[in-house]
Automatic annotation (TrEMBL):
Its cofactor is Fe cation. Catalyzes the hydroxylation of 2-nonaprenyl-3-methyl-6-methoxy-1,4-benzoquinol during ubiquinone biosynthesis. PANTHER family: 5-DEMETHOXYUBIQUINONE HYDROXYLASE, MITOCHONDRIAL (PTHR11237:SF4), COENZYME Q10 BIOSYNTHESIS PROTEIN 7 (PTHR11237). The lineage of its organism: Bacteria, Pseudomonadati, Pseudomonadota, Alphaproteobacteria, Caulobacterales. Keywords: Cell membrane, Iron, Membrane, Metal-binding, Monooxygenase, Oxidoreductase, Ubiquinone, Ubiquinone biosynthesis. It is an enzyme of class 1 (oxidoreductase). It comes from Brevundimonas aurantiaca. It comes from the Bacteria. Its EC number is 1.14.99.60. This is 3-demethoxyubiquinol 3-hydroxylase. Fe cation 2 binds at residues 67, 119, 151, 154. Belongs to the COQ7 family. It catalyses: a 5-methoxy-2-methyl-3-(all-trans-polyprenyl)benzene-1,4-diol + AH2 + O2 = a 3-demethylubiquinol + A + H2O. Gene3D superfamilies: 1.20.1260.10.
Length: 190
């Protein structure tokens, strides 16, 4: 998917730095999976209201179910490791639902363009995390690899179903990617 090498941040200095970084990873991944569930749920709701949309409704439901498994895992990890979720959750709920409904209202190809854009950012994000924590937490890195593979499957499905034929594809994709990158940075810290 991406040719760039994973970006591995330099280790932080200081006592508790590794723990703080792991907290950030879990917090942001939980937020991302939460948003993914809401995006697919909103898209599915729009298409359920339209005639002859059975295939996309089924596909969106399957992807939403996979994201829900990821979300449940991160919820367990947050609880087990006593990590607080992002304080941005209420805003992400609104933003993700609006993004899902908005792209679905534009049409199927725009909904697929949303999936492609989100999953391309998430794939890179997970790849960076896998490279960063592989030695420190191999079990979590293995889970992230599995989740990354599933996100790539969603990305590829979107491309196969015409994501790049969406109206104003480049603009739509660019805005969604920028929003995802910003949400990642904010969710790590806030």
């Amino acid at each position: 998917m991406t040719d760039a090498a994973p970006h591995t941040p330099l280790p932080r200095p200081g006592l508790g730095a590794d723990r703080a970084r792991m907290d950030e990873i879990l917090r942001v991944d939980h937020a991302g999976e939460y948003a993914a569930v809401l995006i697919y749920r909103a898209q599915k709701a729009v298409f359920e209201g339209r005639k002859a949309r059975g295939d996309i409704v089924r596909d969106l439901g399957e992807m939403q179910d996979q994201e829900a498994v990821h979300l449940a895992r991160f919820e367990r990890l947050l609880n087990e490791r006593r990590v607080r979720p992002t304080a941005m959750t209420p805003l992400w709920r609104i933003a993700a639902s609006a993004l899902g409904a908005g792209t679905a209202l534009i049409g199927e190809k725009a909904a697929h363009a949303c999936t492609e854009a989100v999953e391309s950012v998430i794939e890179k994000h997970y790849a960076d995390q896998i490279a960063e924590i592989g030695d420190r937490d191999p079990a979590l890195a293995a889970e992230l690899k599995q989740f990354r593979d599933e996100e790539l499957a969603h990305h590829d499905h979107a491309v196969e179903h015409g994501s790049r034929e969406a109206p104003a594809y480049r603009l739509l994709s660019g805005v969604i990617k920028a929003g995802c990158r910003a949400a990642i940075k904010i969710s790590e810290k806030v």
